[in-house]
Design a protein that fits this description.
The chain is of the alpha/beta class. Helix 1 packs parallel to helix 2 and helix 3 packs parallel to helix 5. The radius of gyration is 20 Å and the shape is globular.
């Protein structure tokens, strides 16, 4: 039952960080340059965009939006670099890297200390699923080549495709319980929303792992019920030897 609030911030030749600030403030129900605010504010903001460096004015805006209980998700960037990319790297924003069909970091995807989570972003240069198409994310667009706007589809790749997967799963969570940004952060850090990839726990390629919709919805139900996260030990192979104590325990 989720609804989308489309807010355009980039024109044919791009846009400015000021435009983005005004848009996120509008979506969050905060004062802005438009004549007013929406009747119902957004619960989640997806930003499949990036560019420019750090701006304190932007950081202040994201802090204010988060203060309204809005979860902000952004694409980590497509430069295959560990350099901080904005707005994904602002404090309080969930930064999303991209994976390919094999659940590896996509070759273009940014990585680094700011990445929080990974999601499918595609890789159009290969066809690992052998369906005759490059392994992009099938995306909706408009074809106006004839002079008449027509709905169309095309395969795209990018962290801009990955970020909406995460925003969509967060919307699923909110359909169960109105999770807060702090609750999402807490669950993310414990692995409750993801399937772990790469090095155990958080790493610079996948953050805390690949978004997992089933686990995320179950976690929203846990939060709704006032439950607490359980701690588990996972070992491969399924036996641990505690050195010095000569005790072995088979894990099932």
């Amino acid at each position: 039952q989720a609804k989308i609030m489309p807010v355009r911030v980039l024109g044919t030749f791009g846009g400015s960080s000021y435009d983005i600030i005004q848009a996120i403030r509008y979506a969050a129900g905060l004062s802005n340059d438009s004549p007013g605010v929406p009747a119902q504010k957004a619960d989640i903001i997806n930003l499949s965009l990036g560019g420019g460096g750090f701006s304190q004015a932007s950081q202040d805006a994201y802090t204010a939006v988060r203060g309204e209980g809005v979860i902000v998700v952004a694409a980590a960037g497509n430069e295959n670099t560990n350099q901080l990319s904005y707005p994904a790297s602002y404090d309080g924003v969930v930064s999303v890297s991209a994976t390919d069909f094999a659940n590896e970091r996509a070759p273009y995807s940014n990585f680094g200390s700011a990445v929080d989570i990974a999601a499918p972003g595609g890789s159009t240069g290969v066809d690992l699923n052998n369906d005759g198409y490059g392994d992009g994310v099938l995306s909706t667009l408009v074809d106006d080549s004839s002079g008449v706007r027509q709905p169309a589809y095309s395969f795209y790749q990018g962290t801009s495709m990955a970020a909406p997967h995460v925003a969509g799963v967060f919307a699923l969570m909110r359909s169960i319980h109105p999770v807060t940004p702090d609750e999402v952060d807490g669950s993310l850090a414990t692995g409750a929303l993801t399937t772990d990839l790469g090095a155990f726990g958080r790493d610079d390629s996948y953050g805390f792992g690949l978004i997992d919709s089933l686990k995320s919805v179950k976690d929203a139900k846990r939060i709704l019920g006032g439950g607490v996260l359980s701690r588990v030990i996972i070992d491969t192979p399924n036996q641990i030897t505690f050195r010095g104590s000569f005790i072995q325990k088979n894990l099932k």
